[in-house]
Amino acid sequence: MPNPPDRTARKIKKRKMRHLVTLDDLSNFEIEQIFRLAAGMQSHLETWAGICRSKLLATLFYEPSTRTRLSFESAMERLNGGTLGFADPQATSATKGETLADTARMVTNYADLIVVRHNWAGAARVIAQHTHIPVINGGDGSHTHPTQALADLYTIIQRKSKIEGLTVGICGDLQFGRAAHSFALAVARFGGNLIHIAPKPLQMPPWVLAQLEQCHGQIPLEVESITEVIDRLDVIYVNRLQEERLPPSMDAAAVRGSYLLNASVMENAKPDAMIMHPLPRVNELAYELDDDPRAAYFEQSANAVPVRMALIASLVGLEQLILTQPPERDIALSTQTCENTNCVTNYETYLTSERETFKGDVKLQACAYCGNLLS
Ligand code: NCD
Q1: Among 81, 116, 318, 339, who pairs with 55 as Cys (CB 3.0-4.6 Å)?
Q2: What percent of the chain stands above pLDDT 90?
Q3: Domain 156-296 falls in which CATH fold?
C-alpha cells in the first residue's frame, strides 16, 4: 500500500532568482542586510570558509580590471568556492562573433553565478536575461558599477556610521565614470546630499540627474572647481578621467589634468572628511595624500572583498534572509530604439527595446538596458 501523503510537510516556496545588474535590483533593507553580513564576514573571515564549497563563480571580463576581478575571485575563494573565466575577450568566441546571449547560455552550464564586465552599457542585463543563474554587473560601459557603490557605501558607514545628512562631493569625470553614477544614486537613496564637481563637459549625464530628481528629490549643486566647496564636504569622492570612453568629438586636451585633489586643497577640508576613489588613479589624486588619515581609498578596495563575499552568499541563496523582497520595477517592451551609441541594444540586434518607468512628479522613461532617457 502506498504511503499516505505527509500533510505536515511544509511547502517549500521556490526562491525567485536574483541578479545585481543595477542597484535598483536591491531594496535599501537588502543593502543594509548585505552590509551586516559583510561586517560579520570581515571580522571572522575564516568562519565563513566552506559555505560556497562546490559552487563556481564565472568571471567574464571583456574589459580590463584589477580590483573588481581579483576581489571577486578572492571573495569566492575565501568562501571556498571555485572560479573560472577570462580576462581577455580576444581569447574567447566573442572574436568569432558569438553573441552575449549565447555566451550566457553556455556559462549557465559551467557555473553557479556570473560576474560580467563589458564595454557596452546594458551588457550585464543581457547576460542576466539569458541565464538561469544569478548575474552580477562588474561594470557596463559608462553606465553603472553597482558592486563598487556597495563597497563605497559600506566604507562610508564604517567611518561615519551613516550616509544620511552627509555632504558628499563627487569630483572628476562624472559624464563617463560608471562608478560615479552608481555612487551618486546610492548616496541619494540613503539620504546623503550631493555636490557634483567637474568641468562642464564632464558633468553628470541627464539620465542620472533625472533619476536623482525624480526618484530621490535631489537637484545637486554643480560646481567646476573643488576649491569652491572643499570646506563643506564630509566625503570627497574623486574619479579619474575615463580617457578610453571620451568621444572623438570631445576636446580631450581641454579636460585632461583639469582637476586634482592634493595636500594643499585638503588644507581647507574638514578634519574628519573622507577621501575616496574607486581606483585606479592616474593624476587626479596626489600620492602625498596617502598618509593623510582622511584617505579612505585603500580601505575602500579592501572592503570590496567582504562586501562581495556577502553578496555572493546572498545571491546563491546560502544566506536566505538577506534578499527578501525585490523592489518593484515598471519595465515593459518599447517600440522606441535607444539613441545611446554605447547601449547594448545597438550592437546585439536580436534584443527588443524595453523601457523602465520611474515614478516621480513627472513620469520618467528610460531605456531599461542603459538608463538613457527616452523622449
Ligand atoms: C572603476 C571602473 O572600472 O569603473 N574601477 C573599479 O572597478 N574600481 C573606476 C575606473 O576605472 O575609473
Answers
A1: 81
A2: 86
A3: Rossmann fold (3.40.50)
